[in-house]
Design brief:
about 35% helix, about 70 residues, mainly alpha, extended
């Protein structure tokens, strides 16, 4: 099932990453958001809430970020 999802996602140029759980996903997402320029400045990218946000009271990668 994952392989089918990955193939379909990659067919439309999406990136797909697989991790073992939230503990592994969080550092990956933190780095991705840093690379993408999420910041609390005009013109920067913003991030909304989601399941990973609830893992920390105010994640480092959300501090100072809009959303």
């Amino acid at each position: 099932m994952f392989d089918t999802f990955r193939a379909r996602a990659e067919a439309v140029s999406a990136e797909v990453h697989r991790v073992g759980g939230a503990a592994e996903a969080l550092p990956f997402v933190e780095e991705l958001l840093r690379r993408e320029g999420v910041a609390d400045t005009p013109g920067a990218r913003a991030v909304g809430g989601g399941p990973l946000v609830r893992l920390r009271s105010r994640p480092v990668w959300l501090r100072g970020s809009p959303g």
